Amino acid sequence: MRVHLCAVGRLRAGPEREMVDDYLARFDKAGRPLGLGPAREHQVEDKRSGGMAAEAGLLTRAVPKGALVAVLDERGKTLSSPQFAARLAEWRDAGRQDVALIIGGADGIAPDLRRRADFSLSLGAMVWPHMLVRVMLAEQLYRAAAILAGSPYHRA
Fold it and tell me: Which site in 13, 23, 90, 103 is 20 to 30 Å from 7, CA atoms measured?
């Protein structure tokens, strides 16, 4: 099952970029034998400052046709790492070819895109900068693959 991180904004060179790249490479390596991956990043920019609606249009176009759409939103479902791993496995086992994890911009995700999503995931009650959310989500993807593989990386 291919995983697509669709995010508003360009993650430039620096520690966040290095961490995302590292965790996605780890996910690809650990996930391959499990039928997970590769992970691909789709970065969109609203150069016309059209707000959440324009960002939603760009994000929607970045999602592969037929993909399950999961938005990252503070109003979404909070999952533990093992629950997130199980959810990915459930989607994979249901025959999903593509899953798109959508990270909005500074103002969040447009309400119409949130309503159309198949799943809404929260990383907790706190609001996080969208660039850090990318790092956190990439790490959780790797952690999910490690959990499903029985690796000691997740020590819960």
Answer: 90
In the chain, the number of structural domains is 1
The DSSP secondary-structure symbol of 105 reads B
CATH code of residue 59: 3.40.1280.10
Whether residue 155 is contained in a domain is answered as: no
Closest CA to 135 of 12, 10, 8, 18: 18
The answer to the question of residue 56 being in a domain is yes
Handedness of CA 137, 46, 77, 126 (dihedral sign): positive
117 inside domain: yes
Predicted confidence (pLDDT) per residue in 66-113, tens digit: 999 999 999 999 999 999 999 999 999 999 999 999 999 888 899 999
Indicate yes or no: pTM above 0.90: yes
Three-state DSSP at 108 gives strand
128 closest CA partner among 111, 103, 148, 94:
103
Residue 13 lies in a domain: yes
Q: How many helices (H) does the chain have, and how many strands (E)?
A: 5, 5
Q: Provide CB contacts within 8 A for 152, sequence distance 6+.
A: none
